[in-house]
Design goal:
This protein is α+β, with helices and mostly antiparallel strands and 130 residues long. The chain has three helices and eight strands; from the N terminus they run αββββαββαββ. It has a single domain, classed as Electron Transport, Fmn-binding Protein, Chain A (Pnp Oxidase, Chain A, Roll), CATH 2.30.110.10. Strands 1, 2, 3, 4, 5, 6, 7 and 8 form an eight-stranded antiparallel β-sheet that branches.
């Protein structure tokens, strides 16, 4: 899981895919945080992304770094505790103008039942599951 987190942080921007009533929706994301043994993403409850994840928690993430790419499939599980929100927002202080822990809008999702595959054109794929 640490390797996946490091890859996504190095990429800085990854692409999150959700389902919107059968239509795939992909958007750039940048928040990724490892906290208490779980990998988290963050968004706002007011966004379509939040609604889509709540309706269908199966998500996919994709990013590219130096010719390698990662694809992560997972179930996004909302965590209502404030501690992972705090940890996430401490890691991304640039979000302070939009989000605060416990503000009713900030939401974090842990990635559960996940499979991450790191691939390239020149190496065998590496598969990481948790």
């Amino acid at each position: 899981m640490q390797r996946v987190c490091d890859f996504l942080k190095k990429a800085k921007t990854y692409y999150l895919a959700t389902d919107d009533n059968g239509q795939p929706r992909v958007r750039p994301f940048g928040t990724i945080d490892l906290f208490e043994g779980k990998l988290y993403i963050q968004t706002g409850r007011k966004k379509d992304c939040y609604r889509q994840i709540k309706e269908n928690p199966q998500i996919e993430i994709c990013a590219v770094v130096d010719g390698d790419w990662i694809r992560v499939t997972a179930k996004a599980v909302e965590n209502l505790a404030i501690e992972p929100e705090k940890h996430m927002l401490e890691a991304y202080p640039s979000l302070a103008s939009m989000y605060q822990p416990g503000d009713g809008n900030t939401v974090v999702f842990s990635l559960e039942n996940a499979t991450a595959t790191i691939s390239s054109f020149t190496k065998e794929p590496v598969v990481i599951q948790w």
